[in-house]
C-alpha cells in the first residue's frame, strides 16, 4: 500500500504531500523493521520509540510516524497520538479484517478464559473455523501461538485477524482486558457480540478505583456501535446477577441479552446440583427448558456456561448442538484442573488470583470436601497491593490449612508481599513458606486420604517471575512430581 493512500485514513488536518513510498509492513519495534516498513514511535512505560527511530531507518524504514519532529532522512509524519493512529493504520493496512469475521469479545474480572474456550468449542463442533485470542495463547485454526498480553496491542491484533482470514477462520473469540480497552488496543475491532462475565476487585494498581475499572470495561459495549442491521445484528450478553450490568446496558445500543441464576434473565439457570464429578442444572429460555449435565464444578462454572450458551444461541447455533458441545467439555488448562497421580487425596490447580475467584473456588471445594482443605496461595508483585490481605483472609476463612507462598514476585521482595498478606489475618492460623515448590511439597506430604489441596494463582502458567528472571515452573508438574516422590 502506498504511504499517501494509507495516511488518508488518518484524516490529517494538514494533508501529507511528501514522497509516496510503498509500505510493505507497519512496525513499532525497530528490531522487526524491514525494507519498506512504516515505523511508528510509541511511548511506552519504560522506553520511547522515538529514541529508536534512527535505528529503524537504518533497518529499512521508509517513513516514520511520530509525535514530534525527528531529524531523519525519510518522511516523518507527526500526529498528536501515535497509539491511536496506529490502531487506525493497522486496521486499514490489513484491509479491515474484523468486518469479515464473526467477532466475539469477552470482558470481566474472572471467567474470560473458560468462557472463550467454551464458546470456541461450540463453534468448532458445528464446523466453524475458529480463532482464539486470550491469556493462554492465540490460536489460529489448529495452530497455537504464544501471547504476551491477554489482549495484544492493535498492530499485533489486526495482523493476527488477517492471519486468521488467510487460514480460513470465520469466527474469532477473544478475551478483552480492561487495560486493552483503556489503552485503545481494540480500536478498529468490529465486534458482533460483547460478553460480560463479572466485576470484582482487580487491577486497582492501574485503574485506581473500582468505578474507573468498571468504566474501562464498559468501553467494550459502547464500541459495539450505534446502528442497527438486521442482517448483522450486534448483541451485548450481560450477567444479570452482577450490578455492573446496569451500567453496561446503558452503555450500548446493541441488543441486550441477559443470563443469570439469582435474578431474572433471558437465559436462566435453576435446580443446580453439584458433586465432585460435575454439575447438573436446567436452563430456561422463555418457555423452553433444557437439562444440562456438565463435567465442570461450581456456581462460577454455571455462569461461564450460561454466557457461552447465550452467545452461541444468538449466533444461530441450534440448542441441541450447543448442549452436546458443552456437555463434552472436560475442562480448561489451569482452571479447576485436577492433578491425578493415583494419590488418595484431591489436588486442584486453579488460576484464581483475585479475592472473588479464590473465594468462589474455595466455596466450591467446601461443597464436596469432607476432610482437610489445604490452599497454597500467593499474590503477584508489582500488582494491586490492596487485594493481598483480602486473599489471605479468604484463604484462612475457607481452608483448614492455609499456606502463604510466592506467586510471581517480579521486582518486589517476596517477603514483603507475604507480610502484606499476613496483615489481613492477624491472630489466625496459617503457615508461610516463601519457596513455592517447598509449599506445594509440604501440603502434599501432609495430606491424607480424602483431603483436598488447592494450588491457586498461576493455573496454566509454566513459569515464575522472580526479579528480572523467568524460571520454568508449572504448579501441575511440581505437584505431580511431589506426589510420585512422596
Main β sheet profile: 11 strands, mixed
Helix % is 25-40%
What are the segments in which pLDDT stays under 50 over at least 5 consecutive residues? none
Give the class from helix and strand content and strand pairing: alpha/beta
Shape call: globular
Strand adjacency order, main sheet = 8-7-6-9-5-10-11-12-13-14-15
* Head-to-tail CA distance between termini: 62 Å
**pLDDT averaged residue by residue:** 94
Tell how many strands the DSSP assignment holds: 23
Strand content: 15-25%
Give the C-alpha Rg.
24 Å
Count helical runs. Answer: 16
Please supply descriptive tags for the structure shown above.
486 residues, alpha/beta, eleven-stranded mixed beta sheet, six-stranded mixed beta sheet, 16 helices, 22% strand
Provide an overview of this structure.
It contains 16 helices and 23 strands. The strands form four sheets. An eleven-stranded mixed β-sheet has the order 8-7-6-9-5-10-11-12-13-14-15, sandwiched between helices. A six-stranded mixed β-sheet has the order 16-17-21-18-19-20, sandwiched between helices. Strands 1-2-3-4 form a four-stranded parallel β-sheet. By secondary structure, the chain is α/β, with parallel strands linked by helices.
Summarize the structure.
By secondary structure, this protein is α/β, with parallel strands linked by helices. It has 16 helices and 23 strands.
List the SSEs and their pairings.
Layout: H1 3-7, E1 25-27, E2 37-40, H2 53-58, E3 63-66, E4 76-78, H3 82-93, E5 102-107, H4 112-125, E6 130-133, E7 138-140, E8 143-145, H5 154-166, E9 171-175, H6 178-183, E10 193-196, H7 204-207, H8 210-222, E11 235-239, H9 244-251, E12 255-260, E13 267-275, E14 278-285, E15 288-294, H10 299-314, H11 319-328, E16 337-338, E17 346-350, H12 355-366, E18 373-377, H13 388-398, E19 401-404, H14 414-422, E20 431-432, H15 436-446, E21 452-456, E22 463-466, E23 469-472, H16 475-485
Parallel strand pairs: 1-2, 2-3, 3-4, 5-9, 5-10, 6-9, 10-11, 11-12, 12-13, 17-21, 18-19, 18-21, 19-20
Antiparallel strand pairs: 6-7, 7-8, 13-14, 14-15, 16-17, 22-23
Helix pairs in contact: 3-5, 4-10, 4-11, 8-9, 10-11, 12-13, 13-14, 15-16
Amino acid at each position: 500500500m502506498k504511504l499517501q493512500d494509507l495516511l488518508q485514513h488518518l484524516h490529517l488536518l494538514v494533508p501529507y504531500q511528501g514522497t509516496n513510498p510503498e509500505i510493505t509492513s507497519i512496525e513499532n519495534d525497530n528490531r522487526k523493521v524491514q525494507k519498506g516498513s512504516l515505523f511508528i514511535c510509541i511511548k511506552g512505560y519504560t522506553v520511547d520509540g522515538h529514541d529508536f527511530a534512527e535505528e529503524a531507518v537504518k533497518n529499512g524504514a521508509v517513513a516514520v510516524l511520530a509525535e514530534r519532529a525527528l531529524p531523519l532522512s525519510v518522511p516523518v509524519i507527526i500526529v498528536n497520538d501515535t497509539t491511536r493512529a496506529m490502531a487506525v493504520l493497522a486496521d486499514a493496512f490489513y484491509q479491515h479484517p474484523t468486518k469479515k469475521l464473526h467477532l466475539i469479545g469477552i470482558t470481566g474480572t474472572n471467567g474470560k478464559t473458560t468462557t472463550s474456550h467454551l464458546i470456541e468449542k461450540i463453534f468448532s463442533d458445528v464446523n466453524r473455523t475458529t480463532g482464539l485470542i486470550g491469556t493462554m495463547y492465540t490460536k489460529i485454526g489448529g495452530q497455537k501461538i504464544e501471547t504476551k498480553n491477554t489482549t495484544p496491542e492493535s498492530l499485533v491484533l489486526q495482523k493476527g485477524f488477517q492471519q486468521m482470514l488467510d487460514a480460513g477462520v470465520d469466527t474469532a473469540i477473544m478475551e478483552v482486558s480492561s487495560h486493552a480497552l483503556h489503552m485503545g488496543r481494540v480500536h478498529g475491532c468490529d465486534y458482533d457480540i460483547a460478553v460480560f462475565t463479572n466485576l470484582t476487585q482487580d487491577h486497582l494498581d492501574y485503574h485506581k478505583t473500582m468505578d474507573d475499572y468498571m468504566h474501562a470495561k464498559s468501553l467494550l459495549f459502547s464500541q459495539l456501535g450505534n446502528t442497527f442491521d438486521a442482517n448483522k445484528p450486534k448483541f451485548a450478553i450481560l450477567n444479570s446477577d452482577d450490578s455492573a450490568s446496569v451500567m453496561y446496558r446503558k452503555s450500548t445500543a446493541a441488543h441486550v441479552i441477559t443470563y443469570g441464576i439469582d435474578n431474572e434473565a433471558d437465559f436462566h439457570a435453576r435446580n443446580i446440583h453439584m458433586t465432585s464429578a460435575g454439575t447438573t442444572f436446567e436452563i430456561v429460555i422463555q418457555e423452553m427448558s433444557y437439562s444440562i449435565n456438565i463435567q465442570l464444578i461450581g456456581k462460577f462454572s454455571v455462569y461461564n456456561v450460561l454466557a457461552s450458551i447465550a452467545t452461541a444461541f444468538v449466533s444461530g447455533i441450534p440448542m441441541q448442538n450447543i448442549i452436546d458441545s458443552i456437555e463434552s467439555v472436560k475442562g480448561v488448562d489451569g482452571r479447576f484442573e485436577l492433578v491425578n497421580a493415583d494419590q488418595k487425596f484431591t489436588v486442584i490447580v486453579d488460576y484464581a488470583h483475585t479475592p472473588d475467584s479464590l473465594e468462589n473456588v474455595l466455596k466450591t471445594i467446601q461443597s464436596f470436601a469432607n476432610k482437610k482443605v489445604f490452599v497454597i496461595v500467593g499474590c503477584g508483585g508489582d500488582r494491586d497491593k490492596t487485594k493481598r490481605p483480602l486473599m489471605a483472609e479468604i484463604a484462612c476463612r475457607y481452608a483448614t490449612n492455609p499456606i502463604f507462598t510466592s506467586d510471581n514476585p517480579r521486582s518486589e521482595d517476596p517477603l514483603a508481599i507475604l507480610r502484606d498478606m499476613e496483615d489481613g489475618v492477624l491472630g489466625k492460623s496459617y503457615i508461610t513458606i516463601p519457596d513455592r515448590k517447598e509449599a506445594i511439597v509440604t501440603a502434599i506430604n501432609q495430606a491424607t486420604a480424602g483431603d483436598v489441596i488447592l494450588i491457586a494463582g498461576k493455573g496454566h502458567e509454566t513459569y515464575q517471575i522472580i526479579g528480572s528472571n523467568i524460571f520454568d515452573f508449572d504448579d501441575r508438574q511440581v505437584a505431580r512430581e511431589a506426589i510420585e516422590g512422596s
